[in-house]
Amino acid sequence: MPHSIDSLSFEASTAATIESLGQIVPELIVTCTVLAIVLVDLFFIRGKGKRQGPLEMVVLAGMGAALIATWAGFAGEPRAVFGTMMVVDPFSSFFDAVFLLATVLFVFSTMMSNEIAVADRSEYYTLAVGSVLGMMLMASSTDMVSIFISVEFVSLASYVMAGFVRGDRRSSEASLKYVLYGSVSSAVLLFGFSYLYGLTGTTSLIEANQVLYASNPYPLALLFALVLVIAGLGFKIACVPFHFWAPDVYEGAPTPVTAFFTVAPKAAGFALLSRFLVTLLSNPSTSPGFWTFLGSLDWPLLVGILAAGTMTLGNFGALRQTNMKRLLAYSSIAHVGFVLMAVSTLSPEGLHAIIVYMAAYLVMNLGAFLVVIAIRERTGSVDLRDYDGLANDAPMLVVAMVVFLYSLTGLPPSLGFLGKYYVFAETIRQEIWWLAAIGAVNSVIALYYYFRVAKALVFRPLRERQWTGAIPELATSLSVALAAVTLVFGVPWGAFEKVTTYSATLFLGR
C-alpha cells in the first residue's frame, strides 16, 4: 500500500510538472534557442570561416517564435505554475514581449556594429539569449528562491557581455565594476530575503503575504528586510543611490550591449519590483483594489523620494556629458526616476503607467542607440562634437534621431509623451503634488541636453573629416521605421490602450 501511495504521488507530481511546463512555452522556446545557437555554431559554422548570418537567423527565429507563443497565451487566465514559484498572467506576458522585442533590435544593432568580432558571436548571442530567459523568469517569479536565481541568471550573463571586447581596457573596466557592484547588491538582496524568510517561515511571496497580514510580526525587522530587498533591486534598475556603476559600465560596454542594458534588464527590474510590492504587501481583503499596504510606513513617500532623487541626479549628470553613451546612460537613470513616480502611486493605474512607459522607452531609447551605432560606424566616434552637421550627410538618419530625442523629452504627439502623461496623471490623481512638480522641472531640464544633440546634428555646419565607414542601410531603414512607430503610437489608439490596460492584470493567488 505505501508503494502504491508513493506511486500515485509521483504520478500526480509528474502530471503537475508537465502541466506547468505547458504554461511556460515562451520560456521553453528561448531555452531551445540557446541550445540551437550552440549546436549551429558547433556543427555548421565553427571552422568554416564565416559566422555572421546563420546565428542571427537562429536568434531572430527563436525570438519570433517566442513572441508568437507569448501573444497566444496573453489572453489566458492568470495562473500559478510550479506551485507558487511562478505565475503566468498578462503582466508577465507583456514584459516577456518587451524582452523579446529588445533582443530582436539588439541583434540588428549587432549586425550594424563592428565592435563584436564575428568569430565571437556564438558565445555573445548565447549570453544575450540566456539573459533574456532570466528576465522572463524575473517577470514571473513569486518565490524568493526563483527570484534570486533569475536575478543571478541575468547578472552573470550581463557581467560577461559588458566586458566582451577582449583587449579593450574600458570594456574590461566596465565588466569589473559591474561584477563588484553586482556582487554586493546580490548579497544585500539575499540578506533581505533571509530576513523575510525568518519572519514568515516561507519563501513564497503569496504565502508570506498571508502570514504578514495574519500576525504582522516584528515591524522593525520587516522594515529592515524590505529596505534590503529594495536596495538590492534598486541596483538592477540603477536608481539613486544605487546607480554608481551605470555610467561607467554603459560607456565601456560595446554599444549594442549598452543599448540592450538600458532597456531589457531595467524592464525586468521594474516588473520584479512591482510584482514584489503588490504580491507581498497588498491587503488581500480589499479586492479588487488590493492597494492598501501593510503597516503604517508611508511607502509612496519612500519610493517618491527615490524617484525624485533618481530623475534629478540623472538629468543633472547628463547636462555636462559630451560622450553620447554616457549622456544616454544618465538619461536612462533619469527615466528610471519617472517610472518610479508611477511605482510610488501604488495603484492599478500606476501599474498601467509603468507598462505604457516601458513600451515607449523600448522604442525610443533603442531607436536612439541604433542611430548612435550608425554614426559610430560613419565617424568612428561617439563624441558629441563629431555629430556636427551630420544632417547634411545622413538626413533621414538625423530626422529619426530628432524624433527619438523629441519623444525622450516627452513632447506630444509621441510615445514618450503618452508614457509621461499616464505617469503624471496618476501622480496628480493621487495628490502627490510635490513629486509631480519635481517631475515637471526635470522634464524641462531634459529638454536642454536633448536639444544640444539635435542642435549639433542639424544646426551646426558639417566639418571636414576623415570618414571611417559608411552608414549601414539597415540602420537608416530601421531607425525611420521606429521613428514612425514613435509618432503613430503617440496618439492613444484604442487597441494599444486596451492591450496595455489588460497587461496591468496580476495574479495574486487570492
Poorly predicted spans: none
> How are strands sequenced across the largest beta sheet?
1-2
**What does the largest sheet look like?**
2 strands, antiparallel
Strand content: under 5%
Structural class, please? mainly alpha
Strand tally is 2
Number of helices: 19
Rg calculated over all Cα atoms: 23 Å
Mean pLDDT score:
87
Helix coverage percent = over 70%
Q: What string, H for helix and E for strand, traces the elements in order?
A: HHHEEHHHHHHHHHHHHHHHH
Instruction: Report the principal-axis shape.
Output: globular
Ends apart, CA distance between termini:
36 Å
Verbal overview:
The protein has 510 residues and is mainly alpha-helical. The chain has a domain at 299-510. Helices cover 74% and strands 1% of the residues. The chain has a two-stranded antiparallel sheet with strand order 1-2. The longest helix has 32 residues, at 169-200. The two termini are 36 Å apart.
